[in-house]
């Protein structure tokens, strides 16, 4: 008992000592944080930068001429902001093209036809002319995995699995539903299907199908894979449930896989004044799907990262460590930018201590998720009080990001931090035609930039 | 020292006892809260109810036929949900009509004319034909208050004051800028101006002017008052700054004030099983401005409140206290619904213990603000852990709401609670043509309904 009393007192006293020291820094830090947010909101460049990326370039899938335009755009924007160094880093990227034909419809026994909004999944093989087949529907992936080959062979598999509306964080609902897109063509090919079509991964009902990566398995037949809009998928599901009759599906896609192509990550930095060899990166991905304008995914992350560094430079901050912005190429279909970056910086001996990624859209900021050690989370949580006036409240272990992920294998003890904005609207826009500049709110985007700039500054100061 | 040790131990032990008791309830409560949110997200009625209010009726300014349609709509929706009691409460409301003419332009010395997007402020007198006058611009209200009569007399005052972008909570920026609309006609009339036009209160640049209440002062000349869209205001300000020349403004408005009219609040309740005479109300306002569809303001609050009660009924919850939904009439230009309600329930001896209001839009929920005693805040904060999985983090003293405000004068010790959603997009839509159903996100709206239903349930259980 005595020991416990002493311990309790010790903890109590220690608490007050630490508390007071923090209070002093807190006052000073909160003044700087206010300046950072004010710069983001009053003189921000994020919104105009995003407008330019979305409207002057637009969609920018790896291997396309638009992606190369985006590389040049990124280099010259970073140059314009006059950072210490701006350079390219070569990356070999996959090259898949959608082609010009993407049409589909289904026909019931009485002859009635219904046109659908359909999109090839990224990486799909073409249909080579019009493909037709009887539709066999599965409520979800589990049902497909349990199916008999005789019920599927020679047919077109339709997986109608919706994202789970009751999950609060939409990325959890996406993660749970992702295998129907990523693995649907493998699952269906194993049962002898001739093609697979899925309900788009979206939480809202509309006419714009989504796209995204899918995989094939070595040794299995590569079958065409496509997504229907949520509206079309619901209508088709209802018809199949009502009629119990056979429906024939017809579709045509002339997408193709081409040889890998040379592209680039684009990098800029502010050199560290005390520890220039310790690098903190912040980044997003420059490529996007070929539909919409890649505004939230991940134009927002690109302008967030650039703006985070611009603000610190504008406020004449001299970093202790080297702060580096990285525009990664090819997150969407291969992550070759992230993988190449990690290998090259490891090989050249550039020591990475922390990495931040923004790839969850330009929505109202809620916080940060930490993929690292307890010390990383503790550090981020020590900023909680500072961030409270900016309505930032989420400081938890969680995912860092796809682009920065490979750094974990190369740098023991690195902390990866993912920016966490509000996720509710993300899957209205994700990988579909709605992901355009007009669907990004200026203030929400700017608050994200302010939050990331503030975090970058605090990490440089206290890590 | 000994005393402190004992005290520390006592607090420590007490903490663990309370903690354990709360843990047990916490487990049970979290199951119910999960059911409430799942009902809101999987079987929710809020979105379809809002669609109906916005599209089957639309804008519904007090005194208009649309407002009367909304009263009937509210009554029959509440009846449909089969609550214990549904009834009307008579309210006399002001009646102002916009009329059919609302046009304006300005002309520079070289003859060039520029048409503007202009809206009469609610309650403004008409221009009685085309009014013309030289424009005199003021950067903000303070500048106008300091002006000399000779510089203003006979002219049209233009107040170009923008909302402050650097404020994090947009309602604070609105509050700071509100006097240019509410008091601009008084300030300008005191200096002999013939009319006042203001920059719309909005945080984004677009072509849709906003409207809203304004005041006149007894004994002062009532001058026409209108708002220009933010785009038009910026263009006009730039032109005045550049040219320093004189600009003549021409505009016409045939709005009019008519005699007060009879209307109604609409009320429904679930009777309390233990304390039926203790009433907890939840509400929003049924009227809206006559522009747009009143989707966020305050269609969202109407369907939030109705849905909060519907969910509890659907889950077979038998409340201890009487839970009452109130659709208030005439929040926008008079608050006669709120004032009348408070007086009538006081007179009839209906004891109100708590009141909740949703009137800040249908955006992603962030928390609750409490206008009451410390005990009210402490109670709400005791729910913090329960609400954390739903990303609710704001539990602070703050504003309750306009409609429930008058209850404070009638019931000593009542706690008023305002629902606090994310505020960043609110002033893109507020009182302008963009406040339509399409600008409300289904999940964000439903999460708001779930949060309010959960709060209502917890308050009934623990107050």
TrEMBL record, chains A, B:
GO biological process, one term: proteolysis
Protein name per Swiss-Prot or TrEMBL: Carboxypeptidase Q
KW Ligase (keyword) present: no
Keywords from the named record: Carboxypeptidase, Endoplasmic reticulum, Glycoprotein, Golgi apparatus, Hydrolase, Lysosome, Metal-binding, Metalloprotease, Protease, Secreted, Signal, Zinc, Zymogen
Signal peptide feature range: 1-20
Location(s), subcellular: Endoplasmic reticulum; Golgi apparatus; Lysosome; Secreted
Presence of the UniProt keyword Lyase in the record: no
Cellular component, GO annotation: extracellular region; lysosome
Lineage: superkingdom: Bacteria
Membrane-spanning intervals of the chain: none
Peptidase M28 domain mapped to chain residues: 265-445
Classification via InterPro entries: CPQ (IPR039866), Peptidase_M28 (IPR007484)
Origin species: Brumimicrobium glaciale
PANTHER family per the UniProt record, alphabetical: CARBOXYPEPTIDASE Q, PROTEASE FAMILY M28 PLASMA GLUTAMATE CARBOXYPEPTIDASE-RELATED
GO MF term list: carboxypeptidase activity; metal ion binding; metallodipeptidase activity
Coiled coil: none
SUPFAM superfamilies: Zn-dependent exopeptidases (SSF53187)
Subunit annotation: Homodimer. The monomeric form is inactive while the homodimer is active.
